[in-house]
Amino acid sequence: MNVRPFEKAVVIADGLTKSVLSPDHPYRASHDNVGDREIERLFGRGRGFGEGPLPVFLQAVAEGDPELVLLSPAAHNTNAGEDTGGFLEPIDELAGRAAVVPADEGVIPADGLIAALDDLGVSATRRDEVRLLVVGCHTDRRILGLASLLRNVWGFSSVAVSPHLVGSSTQEAHFATLRHTFPAAGIGVLLDLEEAAEFVGLSRGQFSGFERKPVSIEPPEALDALGDTGRDIIELLCMNWTRTRLRPLAGGFSGSLLFLADGWKGGARTEPLVVKIDAFAQMRRELNGYHQVKDFFGKHVPTFGYPITRDESIGVGMELAAMEGRPQTLQDSFEEAEGEERLEHFLRRLDKSLALLSEKLYANTSDPSWVVPYRAFGLHAEQQAVWMRQNADLVLSYLEESGVDAPRVDVGQVEKLLRLISANEDGVDSEMCLVHGDLNFANVICDDGDNIWFIDWTHSGLAPLELDFAKFESDAKFVMSKEFELDDLPRLQRLEEYLLSHPIPAAAANLPDDLKFVKWDLRFRKILDAVRRIRESCFGLKRTDDWLVYRIALLRYALHTLSFDKRRDRGECEPQQLMHALYSVQSLVFDLVADDFHLKIRAERPPSYPPR
Fold first, then answer.
1. How far apart are CA 110 and CA 102, in angstroms?
2. d(Cα 39, Cα 137) in Å, to the nearest integer?
3. What average pLDDT does the structure give for the chain?
4. DSSP state of 185
5. How many whole angstroms separate alpha carbon 442 and alpha carbon 479?
6. Residue 26: is the preceding peptide bond cis (ω within 30°)?
7. What are the C-alpha distances in Å from 603 to residues 337, 360, 427?
8. How far apart are CA 257 and CA 253, in angstroms?
9. What SS3 state is found at 70?
């Protein structure tokens, strides 16, 4: 945390009584007792009781320059009728060297505390030159109330806590308060015990033996990608680990950071966590989308932790229930499908993903509606044709530079037809439902037991049923198919023209003679098999066999793919992938302008319109 140079430092300790922290009977039966785990973490175990970080830290404060204030709640009785009042033994020895402020049970003694601070000369010091560290129990109640009083009511600018010096009987509330509530209230959270010592003017070296540090983040390139803000967020999200290894789950071209975080506590492996960091507005939309769908998906969406805000970014941790083995994205599974067995493995996961989406989301929320397809998919905007022309010209320039003899596209003609069809504002009877809105294969996480989770609900909302299916298909054809070369373009064009002329394409063994290569080339068959399953799922939900809206959705995403240019650092598509998408755009505009839906505007077709 950024703080000014200070004149005074005060450590305020609360909840250090026997009823809260003693491991002995009858105190451990008190409803205020934080429990054995927290007592050992803060005070030490067995013969080492009293040698934990909290009593050692307070001993150093009492012997050093910082002032020490102890809040002493009045004695009260347990259900057994035994007196549990008084400080715990290691703390009782310090009371003679501290300002002790008595308090009634459950009440923060505001008057007594401000009087004690006056006696210590704090009130005579500017409040931006005083550092206040709050320690003790319970994190989510007493410590939070006390720190908030100091920071947000009395106006002290440098108020902090340290996870190693506070505890609570409820671990979830303890971590939620440290990760979310304290930072949101402007209260610093010092994850390094040595930093907490330095904060109040003690020597860091006094506490080096405790090894209470922020989580160690690996590998170095992941740490570099995070920056200072991202590092702070990861350290808070993973504060209960000693080490984490981050594995990217997406390319990051959207500006967000998405990782699978593997964790360790010492040498013991923990359950992994999905971590996402994004801009405030984007992450707020994702959280809203998650709350829209969690009732439908249950365990198939992650469980979100409390969000952490730093500067203009928000980070959130997502736990995946019942994970078996090492998780990976469905995109990883597709790209690793280099043999028959791995292809069947990918297709099995794809089938399960489509079945879950269809049953729990699309069919469950579908409603017959009147859809204006070009407007619904944003293709009516003039800028779409402008972007198409700019992107297509660049793609063709890449092809020209390569010198490969591949079919070319008349971009001017495609632009005219795109403007013509997108001007159609007629509607059709179709279906609207709750959709994901950005259903790429990297947003589907699978584990070794083929359990499925769907993440990144930033763009979810009501939309035509076809939207997610078309995005899935486009990603399979263009974005993830990275094994093709420029010499494959003529065959890619033939396969794409076939796929766009058949709502449900045939299996590889039943394709026309000019597509027999698909059966023997796994690169092409992966596309065919994926598209067959995606369309079977989509059209299985439709009330008619018309696929006009689906083809318009395919046009939207083929156009979108043209901007995923790796050479411009805007995506992961090489020239051959971009050219494949451009072939799709060309075929789609020719097919759509000839569709009966465009009968009215076809009467106005330009003289350059090609014969069909």
1. 11
2. 10
3. 89
4. T
5. 11
6. yes
7. 48, 43, 19
8. 9
9. strand
Residue 604 in this model has a pLDDT that exceeds 70: no
Question: Hey, what are 538's tokens?
Answer: 């989509």
Question: Exposed e or buried b for every residue in 328-367, given b needs 16+ CB within 10 A?
Answer: bbbbbbbbebeeeebbebbbebbebbbebbbebbbeebbe
CA gap 42, 31 in Å, rounded:
18
SS3 assignment, position 337: coil
306 alpha-carbon distance from chain centroid = 11
pLDDT over 50 (residue 311): yes
Report the pLDDT averaged over residues 88-99: 88
What are the beta bridge partners of residue 577?
A: none
pLDDT at residue number 287: 87
Find, among 476, 440, 464, 439, the residue nearest to 546 by Cα.
464
Do strands 303-304 and 257-265 pair parallel, antiparallel, or not at all (unpaired)? unpaired
| Paired sense of beta strands 130-137 and 166-167, if any | parallel
Q: Which residue from 349, 364, 369, 366 is spatially nearest to 295, judged by alpha carbons? A: 364
Cβ atoms 101, 125 nearer than 8 A: no
What pLDDT sits at residue 611?
44
Short-list 505, 481, 445, CA closest to 577: 481
Helices (H), 319-426: 330-335, 340-356, 363-365, 373-376, 382-402, 411-422
Report in angstroms the alpha-carbon separations of 510 from 295, 505, 516, 528. Answer: 42, 9, 9, 12
d(CA 505, CA 531): 8
Structure tokens at 312: 């203009």
- For the chain, state the CA radius of gyration: 31
